[in-house]
Design a protein that fits this description.
The protein is globular, with a radius of gyration of 17 Å. The protein is built from 7 helices and 13 strands. The chain is of the alpha/beta class and 277 residues long. A hairpin with a 5-residue loop joins β12 and β13. α5 packs antiparallel against α6. The strands form 2 sheets. Strands 1-2-3-4-5-6-7-8 form an 8-stranded mixed beta sheet, with helices on one face. The chain has a 5-stranded mixed beta sheet with strand order 9-10-11-12-13.
Amino acid sequence: MTVQLPLSESALAPDTQSKAEAREIAPDLAYRRLKIVNVVFLGQPGANNDWLLIDTGLPGSKSDIVSVAEERFGKGARPRAILLTHGHFDHIGTVEDLAAEWDVDVYAHPLEHPYLDGTLSYPPADTEAGGGLMTLLAPLFPRSPINLGKRLKLLPDDGSVPFTEGWRWIATPGHTPGHVSLWRESDRTLIAGDAFVTTGQESIYEAATQKPEMHGPPRYFTPDWNAAEVSVKTLAGLEPELAVSGHGRAVKGPVMREALHRLASAFRTIAVPEHLR
């Protein structure tokens, strides 16, 4: 039986929602939900070309991303670079088109490069992961690599995030080998990717309604649960004040931290599919 970690309304990060439906959760941080996945915009409003795009959503999301970018940063705005938390289809759906149109590089962890340079496909989906129809449909989701060619760059070895101040990347493998999260110590802000998510991603209903709950990474596409557990414990140990993940609403405060610590301490019961326990 799955243990639920519901999040109350008090754990939801307050936001202002623009006409293009970007949710601003900090002066220099906003996200836009595109169907089932979040895309993150990192930079001050009006910065024009001095910002980062974190992940690029599903195929077909390009016009939405460009609309948010131009509303938030100015007409004709383009980022300094695109950064990928990982290379799953719902996070890289428009990266090739956007990188070409904006003429920018794409940064990712070296262990994620084989899935972004045409070398490797991701492992097959786990159809026994449970949770709902998304899991049953997961074998239909794309797993093949894309090839970003010369635009693909390595994240710096020193943990810094290119073109930012105060941010660093943290290796959070498990969901994929080269998955990363982004962390800013000064205000304890976390961009978690899919290291943990704040809605049930295995269920079409929960993915659509965004019911706020604390979950481990999406089960059907997580091959290394030992590494995923370590990653969640690492992020919980940071004691974040504000967190936005790849799926679900941004969350904040002590209620969020309590749920994240409960997830970390009971990870095997809460996050891992029963057939693997």
